[in-house]
Amino acid sequence: MNSLTIKNLSKTYANGVKALQNVSLEIPKGMFGLLGPNGAGKSTLMRTIATLQDADEGSVVLDNLNVTNNKNAVRRVLGYLPQQFGVYPKVSAEALLNHLAVLKGITNKKERDELVKALLHKTNLYEAKKRNLDGYSGGMKQRFGIAQALLNSPKLLIVDEPTAGLDPAERNRFYNLLSEVGENTIVILSTHIVEDVKELCTNMAIINQGQVVLKGSPLKLIENL
Ligand code: ADP
Ligand code: ADP
Question: Which residues pair with 188 in a beta bridge?
């Protein structure tokens, strides 16, 4: 039983901006939508959950693990796709996944080859596995971002505005992939597109100016917006 519990999280930046104010959320397995306008505090919240920065107050707990005090343990079960996953070198998807798998400590070649092959199939990149990443389309790059995040077999996958700039077909393809992952993982999707949350997510929260203004089931909440 996986879940993420966020309690009374607050963060004020050095310039005085209150990016998070007393944010509390219970995030179960499945797809969770985090909605809010630019500047609402979504990235600050996601970076805090992803162990990339600390809040001033409050706690984030994954199952029984306090995220702030157990960063390394959390990183082993975390997948994170930042807003602009910027590294697209002149190397093929297959070669880079293989390399990342080595870095992860999968030294058995047969095991590594099978894992890489499975990830390429899952993200629909198998046919394009020999092509260099810098030549991939936006949608392919995002699907590669999911492939690299899945190398960790994450319990928790965080994706920040993943479909910005994708055409509708690629967006659908990406969301189908994400939904599949959400069947046995906690997936937190940040977006400002209400329809995406309505279609995909079983739970959601809306944040504005660092505060949770609504939380619950999208079907119930969104009709009233
Ligand atoms: P969102 O992801 O919803 O756009 P952010 O978490 O990026 O929101 O930002 C929340 C607020 O905090 C914004 O007003 C933003 O300008 C501010 N902010 C974000 N990062 C920093 C930082 N490193 N220093 C100062 N202010 C920041
Ligand atoms: P988002 O695209 O999620 O809204 P931003 O564009 O606000 O994020 O921020 C991009 C980067 O700039 C982030 O790393 C954030 O921490 C930093 N940043 C944002 N606002 C400020 C700010 N007012 N002062 C300093 N750094 C900021």
Answer: 32, 158
How big is the chain, counted in residues?
Answer: 225
Measured CA to CA, the distance from residue 132 to residue 110 in angstroms comes to 23
Mean pLDDT of 111-136: 96
* Angle separating helix axes 138-150 and 109-122, nearest 10 degrees: 140
Give tens-digit pLDDT for 26-36. Answer: 999 999 999 99
The span from the CA of 40 to the CA of 207, in Å, is: 6
Q: Are 8 and 58 spatial neighbours (Cβ–Cβ below 8 Å)?
A: yes
Task: State whether residue 56 is helix, strand or coil.
Answer: coil
Q: Which of 17, 49, 161, 190 to mutate to test the pocket of ligand 1 (most atoms within 8 A of CB)?
A: 17
CA distance 162 to 206: 17
On the question of pLDDT at 1 being above 80, the answer is: no
Q: What is the pLDDT of residues 162-206, one digit of tens each?
A: 988 889 999 999 999 999 999 999 999 999 888 899 989 999 999
Q: Where are the alpha helices (DSSP H) in 25-162?
A: 42-49, 71-75, 93-103, 109-122, 138-150
Q: Ligand 2 pocket, 38 CB below 6 A?
A: yes
Say if CB 98 and CB 151 are below 8 A apart: no
**Ligand 1: residue whose CA is nearest its atom 7:** 43
Kindly give the distance from the C-alpha atom of residue 210 to the centroid of ligand 2, in angstroms, as a whole number. Answer: 14
- Cβ(160)–Cβ(43) below 8 Å: yes
Q: What is the ipTM of this complex?
A: 0.76
User: Does the pLDDT at position 78 exceed 90?
Assistant: yes
